[in-house]
Amino acid sequence: MKVTNSYIGRPMERVEDLRLVRGNGTYVADVNRPGQLYAAILRSAVPHGRIRSIDASDALRVPGVHRVLTAKDFAQTVPRISLRLQPLPQLEPFQQPMIADAKVRYVGEPVAVVIADTAAIAEDAFDRIALDIEPLPAVTGRPQADADSSLLFEEHGSNAAITWKAFRGDADDPFKGADYVRRERFKIQRHAAMFMEPRGFVAEWDAAAGKLTVWGAAKTAWHNRRVLAAAMGLDEHAIDLIEVDVGGGFGSRGEFYPEDYLIPAAARVVGRPVKWSEDRREHMMAANHARDIECDVEIAATRDGRLIGLRGQVWADIGAYIRTNGSVGPRNVAQYMSGPYSIENIDVKCTMLLTNKTPSGTYRGPGRFETDFIRERLIDLVAKDLNMDRVAIRRRNLVADSQMPYPLASITPYDSSTELDSGDYHALFDRCLKEFDWAGKSAMRGKLIDGYYHGLAVGSFIEGGAAGPKEDARLVLETDGSLSVYLGSSSVGQGLETIMAQIAADAMELPYDKIRVLHGSTSHVKDGYGAYHSRSTVMGGSAILVAADKLKQRLRELAAERFNCSTADVALDGEHVGYAGKSLPLSELSTEPVEIEASFYNKKYTWAYGTHCAHIAVDPATGHLKVLDYLSIEDVGRMINPATLHGQAIGSIVQGLGGALLEHLVYDDNGQLLTGSFADYLMPTASDFPRIRSITVELKPCPNNPLGAKGAGEGGIIPVGGIIANALADALAHLNIQPCELPLSPPRIWALAEEAKSAQTRA
Amino acid sequence: MKLPAFEYASPATLDEAVALLAARDGNAKVISGGQSLMPLLAFRLASPELLVDLKRLRGLNEIRIGADGVRLGAKVRWYDIETDARLAQAHPLLAEAIKHVAHYQIRNRGTVGGSLAHADPSAEMPAIAMTCDAELTIVGPKGARLERAANFFKGSLSTSLAPDEILTDVRLPPWPAKRRWGFLEFARRRGDFAMAGVALHYDLDEQGRVVEPHIGAFGVADSPIRLPQVEAILAGATVSEQTIAAAAEAAKQAVDPPSDIHAPSAYRRALLATLLERALRQSAA
Amino acid sequence: MQVQFELNGTSVTAEVEPRTTLADCIRNDFRQTGTHLGCEHGVCGACTVLVNGEAVRACLMLAAQAHGEKVVTVEGLSDDKALSPLQASFRRHHALQCGFCTPGFITTAHALLTSEPDADEERIRDVLSGNICRCTGYVPIIEAVLDARSAYGRQEDK
Hints:
The structure holds three protein chains of three kinds.
Chain A: H1 17-20, E1 37-43, E2 49-55, H2 57-60, E3 65-69, H3 71-74, E4 103-104, E5 110-116, H4 119-126, E6 130-135, H5 142-147, E7 160-168, E8 180-188, E9 200-206, E10 211-215, H6 221-232, E11 239-242, H7 258-270, E12 274-277, H8 280-286, E13 293-301, E14 307-319, H9 328-335, E15 345-354, H10 368-385, H11 390-397, E16 406-407, E17 410-412, E18 419-420, H12 425-436, H13 438-441, E19 448-449, E20 452-465, E21 470-477, E22 483-487, H14 496-508, E23 515-519, H15 536-563, E24 571-573, E25 576-579, E26 582-585, E27 594-601, E28 606-619, E29 624-635, H16 642-661, E30 692-697, H17 720-731, H18 746-762
Parallel strand pairs in A: 1-12, 10-11, 14-15, 22-23, 29-30
Antiparallel strand pairs in A: 1-5, 2-4, 2-6, 3-5, 7-15, 7-17, 8-13, 9-10, 9-12, 13-14, 16-18, 19-20, 20-28, 21-22, 21-27, 24-25, 25-26, 28-29
Chain B: E1 7-9, H1 14-23, E2 28-31, H2 37-42, E3 50-53, E4 63-66, E5 69-73, H3 78-82, H4 87-90, H5 92-98, H6 104-107, H7 112-118, H8 124-131, E6 135-140, E7 143-148, H9 149-152, E8 153-155, E9 158-159, E10 166-172, E11 180-187, E12 194-204, E13 210-218, E14 225-226, H10 228-234, H11 241-254, H12 265-284
Parallel strand pairs in B: 1-3, 2-3
Antiparallel strand pairs in B: 4-5, 5-10, 6-7, 6-10, 8-9, 11-12, 12-13, 13-14
Chain C: E1 2-7, E2 10-15, H1 22-29, E3 48-51, E4 54-57, E5 70-72, H2 85-92, H3 102-115, H4 121-128, H5 139-148
Parallel strand pairs in C: 1-5
Antiparallel strand pairs in C: 1-2, 3-4, 3-5
């Protein structure tokens, strides 16, 4: 009987949950090594300055303090953190030293590492360290950055790093043929991934064996191992980075940070295991910030509502250094501004500005959240000006199925271009409106009901996924007939162990409960890439398919030897091989485990896509905005586990609502980070957004990978800012308010309403 | 964010507790629920030498309702207030205000005494104490003294409590059954500190005119305040839309709220006026 | 100083500094690491444990303050052989992704449903608004807690 599994597509309960709901997960703060000491990191309280001296003699007298390590204790020349993505030579001057050496450039920059018997004692030592920093004027925003009177990198001569240029069509005259042009300025606030488990490492150096083991890896362990090896002067294979359970990443955790070097290096210096657990206040100034941009953009259209061009300048406040992926967000803002709409001519520049703030990096839907806010707002403004229905103008301009593959803007430097792969954007757009009951709800638009004005908005988005170049999988058929799957993919909470087991079970036609998935640690496969750009399912999953094909072939070869026949005559059926009436269980094919390692290569991004609708109500007197209904629909090509996918969609939307309404990392004019706790940084809670709905469909499979899947997991967040702002404008259309800045906090909404009312009185 | 080092004592009696505080000359602090003090310690914004835990002290956690009003022992928790069915009648303003305090887990530990002693300008309990003209009992080395709320709150996180004194109870004056009241606050999310809030009560004479209005506001100054300018407008007037509008305007003029990362001054001022209008309408319904 | 209390049904003793929080005592002295530290300043709820049956933030309590009390952590609500009805409901509804906030939700929901098995959606959302989750967006957590009510003796099911 032929076994045909179909675990793919089933909402399997997650195998991870069995330990996680019991509190039996092992997160890095739960890891302890015999004889360990604890590290705490002294960070600059000055946003910009020259380090004159660090005197730790008083701190060393505190009982329980072992060492206070500064730049000179680590290396003669402090290594710099290299760029992982878009590693352009012109960005090298702005790389961060793994510990501050001559200058400090942001509040939170690591200056010293205290090693003590307990974390509390290590913190006690901070007050006893005399840090003499000569303050320099802080660059805290575009005006100071542009003025160039205070420079973060004197040799560079300017605080502008580089400018990305996105172009398509007639870049010289993108607005040729336009009947109408609208110009606007927008601003999106600095906020961050703010995952719930703060970062941490436990590092252990075995001097006799010359081996370093580090617990706390995530996301991109193989790359990080290479960077760490180079920084420490070790061979890559002398280092093992071990991924344990990871409490969220969202694009931010797992990049190579200063601490990725400082803690292992400290362990080697002190000769004992060193444990570091980041605290939340530290996290807010140490982990990557994101999304801080402002722009001056124009959109051009014909008088019948065909969008023909986008042009403008974006400035990205990227903080004090370019860390591993600081370019991704700014680049994406420029390249993906057209989104799912067919806009022929694009000329958008994005300049990255260096400021004395925490460096930035990717956060879910990097650059996409920002650029969708800009574009969807512009489309609603155009609709209003041209007296067109907002739904009609979008239908008019969405990329059609017949236009696929549709080339998006190209970008330079680090030139790349990409094209939308497949999709029926119109079908999803219409389905979203229908499921949402746009027609029925429209009666409430602009109406005042029980003190609240009601408004609606709709918008479409694209979500890029599955970044290449490759991913590795190693399959091991154990001697008991079970299958171990080792992956280069990394778990950040997305249910990797379950999803990959589903894929492996189907590919090998083995029972699901005979499969276990191990991931993320460098000891698992020779080379891995990791979890970012929504790539794990496509890249890791496809790697499993490639490896499974090879493993099945190998099993046939082994069976052919046993049965003394040709490989082609062997029947491979689930847990058995057979020939001419004879049958053998797989576990008897070999006395040793049978192992295959394989890679899946990919050059093309996948493009999931969809549409969101929102119904909000707002009280302009208090600025209180309620989200009454929020619906998302997305086509992901192929769903492996509908339950986990749905979970990511909802979670992603709520993060977007946090970005649209609540979250903000605030600096004062002196470069001090004012946001220091969860009382300041407001995240969505269970009572804030009760009605969120999400539908995922498999309408147009991706033609570019064997699974037919498109990376998905970031889509939910991407359009939220624009949708909420448009719904707000719709609700208060009678005041003609124009939200151009996030977050739409109650004071901002109130101020918009007040300004609008005074403008009307003056008119 | 590990705590700074301190000693810890858990005395059995109030006298012992006071003696311990007195012996440390201002370097000891009382801890009870700890919901306000522990975060301060975690951020190392306070480093007392000694914490004196009121854990073992008896008799400070009762809610007594009698002829002299509602007495809350300093160790009464928000959960105790929430679950005391008598308070819906005995002091509906208190019952309503406390619904807005923090979250479930904090409500199981946070205390009346702790909140009053901490004196956060946006907190509900200090606002109720101020609005209702509460009387606080404070015990020190020389014995007990009574302090009116109006004299107790000195500024942001600052009260008239000496370092060797312990707040033991707070008395809210008797509440007539026909009393009118209103309570409204506006926070970013459920359980957050209010950006502004209003707590008010008054009685009506036979002609339906306001008698003895108590109009309190919080989140708009460095401590909870009464609004005498607003009270002056309401006293002897009926609560009509005209009076309400005049009251709201007077409230705006009366305050100069602080700005912070959550809300600028102009917004808080306008918010106060809006909340006052709505609370007055609530009270008149 | 020495503290003694009941932890998950067993009497335990530890020698701690006065400044040791209950959370750190549980995690470090007794190696029960299911109680997580997400913020250490009393907002995120990941450290929620039950003290005398009431949900409290273990990061806002000193170990010394737990002296003589009964403490139950997520491990005390768990069993190696089978998931509790609440845990099974979380799994069934996919109410966790990275799992870091989950122990705090489990202990809080358990405390709530034990004393209020008839809690409605609004009450559940209200109570759980003191726990932060960054992954799920809360919708499946609320569904899981609603679905678990029958195991706690909800009136409607009697």
